[in-house]
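Example record

The entry below shows one chain as it appears in the dataset: sequence first, then structure tokens.
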Amino acid sequence: MAKVPKKQTAKPPPMDKLLKPAAGIALAMLAYYFMKGVTNEITRVDVTDQLALREVFFGEGALGKDYAVLCHPEAKDGSVGLPVSSVFQDSHDDGSAPVDYVLMDCDYILPESGKSIYDKFKLDKKKRPTVFVSGKSGPPKQVPQKHLKTGAMLTKLLKQMLEPHAAKIEKTKELKEKCLNKEYCALLLKGGKPEPYVKHAMANLLGKYPNVQFASVDSNLLFLVNLEEYLPEYVSGEHRFVVFKKVSGGLSAGDNETKAEGRLKTSILALDTPGVSFGAMDSLVANALKGKSMKPIPALPNIKTRTKKLEESERQKRDRKKDQARRKAQEDQKPPQQTFSANDGTKEGRRMERERRRAEHNSQNNVKPKTPEEIAEMERRRRQRMEEEAAKWNIGAEDAPEEGVPLEDEWEDLGEEETDYEDSGDGDEDDEDVMDLD
């Protein structure tokens, strides 16, 4: 049996050869962090510059940006000052959120109002770090403390607040506020978990149509009453798409200063084919913006939990619409002379027969339809005749008895006059005619 050769263990390199590379790596890391700290210094807003403040607070400048602002007191008398919040610094270093990070001394008293920045915008100074978002997105809004635990959490919140995204709808109130009350709203009815191509299509639509509100609702769990009958029938796994355009009205009930907007009315343009794609949704939104084929709906959609009973009622509505369309198509195919001739005894047939006879009578007797003014004049004369007839039966002042004469005495006198009569016959003669039966 052949001998197995022994394995030779490799000797470690001497320590003096490892010291130089390790020292080089350490120096490189120190230089990196030093340069990173230098380049990532956060800008401080000059609170005495009114234009800069209005740009940060309201986005009124030419830049038109959004800002994430950390309330941080400015160092005084050459002191180092307080360190910047690590959460704010980490989010700034990440750089993926669509905002500019700045520092501001929120204790500064604004000359116009005489209030500090904390008091002016109702910022809670006790919640540290105090971070708010402002700019073109609107006036300052303080970031909740639960999102300030790590820089990644703050970055995630800033993306959700400022990046365009589709609103998630689960209740009727959310549907009205986030979608129906907007000028244009595109709603995706998900039949299941959206595929990657659907997510990419929605992201592209969000970027292409910034003035359109996009939203989504889970059709597997929720049922949209007053809307489902206008869309392709629900199939699990198939997505549907519809665009809303506000017609009139709103959600404001009005108060002493503002006027009520009236009942909210909307119109729709639905994707007829089941399933969605970027091309189909893009053309549908473009047609809606041009006002093509928008269909007003009589009632606003409501969100309810999907049940078999609701699905059955929606199926019956679809069947009735199909029957109406079929009957209308059959009537359109009939010759014109057969339209009024066949009275089959149904309500529709009797109505058409009455209209036919009315038209014949009007044409033979040269009867012209009365105008609204003539109808109003006829009604006025009728009411006048009714008042005249009613006046005949009413007791006026001239019919009342003289003052001081009771009404009962007058009736008694009248009774006595009517009951006076002369007895022309003889009473004895009447007695003779009576037979004595005794």
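Notes for this example: The longest strand covers residues 240-248. The chain has a mean pLDDT of 82.
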